[in-house]
């Protein structure tokens, strides 16, 4: 006999922004070209850490990330095809779209402006220090630590950071639609339990087809 859960299943969906809803890496490559006069082909970006993938020293990376978080940089980022339609699908089906970004909270105004410009439906926007970065984190705007995420209730997550996706899969025990990118393909080090929870998806139509009602 199947036992029913005592509490109803959460209808909140965790959605990352950069390289899930937006083509952030393309904008960052433009920024690299602008400030360092070189580009890195998309397929060569095998590390989530831009210091490694863009070959930037610690001080160069600090300056680069500060530029990346400037309002004009954020404004120039284009949305991912099908993302808005996907979120609309879930919203109409009664799900709560909760945006959870690793951008520093100093980008809040620019981020909200971008979401509005592109008509991204969402119930909330949270800033989470996913990567333990120091710059741009201010006490003025409330933020969460990655460990706080483990206490929240979601029925699905959509992420591109392998580290964060694995953390969610392990601690929340939910499926994570892992948006395929060269920097999240090396999964051999993960446990089979976590790997089973990571569902690699290549597009928004594929995410919705796989999880029409998560
Ligand atoms: Mg991301």
Structure explained in plain terms:
The protein has 214 residues and is of the alpha/beta class. The chain has two domains: 12-22 and 79-210, 3-Layer(aba) Sandwich (Rossmann fold), CATH 3.40.50; 25-75, no CATH class. Helices cover 38% and strands 14% of the residues. The protein has helices spanning 24-36, 50-53, 58-68, 71-75, 83-92, 108-117, 146-149, 162-172, 192-197, 204-210; strands spanning 12-15, 96-101, 124-129, 144-145, 156-159, 176-179, 198-201. The protein has a seven-stranded parallel sheet with strand order 4-3-2-1-5-6-7. Helix 9 (192-197) links the parallel strand 6 and strand 7. Helix 5 packs parallel to helix 10 (204-210). Mean pLDDT is 92; it is low at 1-5. The structure holds magnesium ion. Magnesium ion (MG) is lined by residues 16, 18-20, 160-161.
Strand content bin: 5-15%
User: Major β-sheet, in short?
Assistant: 7 strands, parallel
Number of domains: 2
The termini sit apart by 23 Å
The H-and-E topology, N to C, reads as EHHHHHEHEEHEHEHEH
Number of helices: 10
CATH topology of the largest domain: Rossmann fold
CATH-scheme architecture of the largest domain? 3-Layer(aba) Sandwich
Give the class from helix and strand content and strand pairing: alpha/beta
The portion of residues assigned to helices is 25-40%
CATH classification class of the largest domain: Alpha Beta
Identify low-pLDDT runs.
Answer: 1-5
Radius of gyration: 17 Å
Question: Can I get a quick summary?
Answer:
The chain contains 10 helices and 7 strands. It is α/β, with parallel strands linked by helices and 214 residues long.
